[in-house]
């Protein structure tokens, strides 16, 4: 066996060992439970938000298979946790529609790293405008002070709870 082949095998074996050891680093992929659910203004707004926003900005993340393999799992979990801290539809935390609008119009939301693996999340200009308008209607109650406060329904508000 040539020295070059030995070095190549050693590098491959070392890389494989590092990759396998990376899988031992725990990554939390959770969906915290909450007592509120969003009172969407329409099914269309909900569908657009689920398509483009909810995996990172809610407690209803659908964790894909690649989110279980390091180092991708670290990247995905970090982005979801950061997204929830910035704005979380499930809790009403920091839902700022003007900022949503700016980020979508700049093309920074949904993130390119997300739409690359989830092309259905990329919204057309028309869909972006419909989503922004629907989010404004959904969360308008927070500003109007009608008692709901944040676009969410509390448990017990409906007979189907």
Give the percentage of residues in beta strands: under 5%
Q: Stretches where pLDDT falls below 50 for ≥5 residues?
A: 153-161
Instruction: Quickly count the domains.
Output: 1
How many beta-strand elements? 2
Judged by helices, strands and strand pairing, the structural class is: mainly alpha
The percentage helix is 40-55%
Question: How would a crystallographer describe the biggest sheet?
Answer: 2 strands, antiparallel
The outline comes out as elongated
Query: What is the mean pLDDT?
Result: 82
- The spatial strand order of the largest sheet comes to 1-2
Number of helical segments with 4 or more residues: 6
CA-based gyration radius: 21 Å
**Which sequence of SSEs, written as H and E, runs from N to C?**
HEHHHHHE
Report how far the terminal alpha carbons are from each other: 69 Å
